[in-house]
Every structure is written in C-alpha cells, then in structure tokens.
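Input.
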Amino acid sequence: MCAPVPTRRQLLAAAGAGGSAALLAACGGSGDAGGATREQLEARDLRLFGSALDLEHTVIAAYTAGAGLLRGEAREHARAIVAHEREHAERLTQMIELMGGKPNPPRTPEEYRRGFPSLSDEDDVLRFAIDLENASVRAYNEALPKLSDPRLRQFAAAPATTEAEHAALLRGDLGRPQVPDAFVTGRSQIG
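Output.
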C-alpha cells in the first residue's frame, strides 16, 4: 500500500530544507505490480507525476525568487533553466490530464518564499538551486522503477537527465567542479 502523498507544504518544506528528501518517493515498495490492480497502478503513476509537478513548481518559484541576486552568466543560465523547468511542468501537466488526473496548480510566490532559506547573495541562490536540482534528479530516479509502464519511465527519465545537466552548470557558476566525483576511480581492487 502506498504512503499518503505529501502535501504541498511538506514538499515545500523538504525542498526549502535543502531538498535532500526523496520528494517523489511518496509510494513505497518496488516497481513490480505485485497484486496491484491496473487502477491502483494508474493511481500510483498519477501520484508520482503529481509530486513531480509540485517539485517543478517549487523549482520555478525558487529561481524566480533568487533571480534578482544573480549576475552575468549565472543569470543567463538561470533564465535558460527556468525555461526548461516550465517545459517540464507543462509536459507533466499534459501527462496528468491525459492520464485522467487533475494537476495541482502552483502556489503563490509568497507561499513558496516562506519555505525557502534566506537568499542574500548569488552564492546562496546557486547553492539552493543546486540542492533543488539534485533533489529533482533523485526524485525522478526514485520514481522510475515505480512507474507502471516503460513509456512512463521513459517520459520521466528525460527531465531527470536535464536536471543533472542543470546541477552541473550551476556548480560551474559557483566555481566548483561540474562533476565533483568520478564514477570510475581507475584503481583496481583486484590482485
């Protein structure tokens, strides 16, 4: 049985706290159907996409809230990222409607701002944006095996990849290595 879908307030609080919570993992268990009916699987898919849409709205609000503190290339990157995030939100909205669900509308900018950390300079904005992008990557990746259909998993994988690209770009804007850790160390543990 799935855990209750987090409220937007809980979602916002988790995102504002650094976004390390798995925001899309509202439904526990594995991606296999088990004994679930088709209706139960579709309801789970809708909850996962609804949570993803809520997160996209939060990310858009965060970039909007911090835009005035960004300069130069970081500001241009943020504008391009917001365009991607809006596209993700639009595609998720369309998918939810296509699946017979009702998408959650975004909250007001003030409602989002109340849950965000204090953003006093460009570095604060970039660090918060990186946290949100990383949370988005985790959330999409954790949702992938829980989605009931390979086409839905493919649909969710595309924004996960884009969110990872955003995080790398923002790390560069912050003056950090864009890929902080190598996937392969080059050292062998054999012999």
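Residues 30 and 146 are 6 Å apart (CA to CA).
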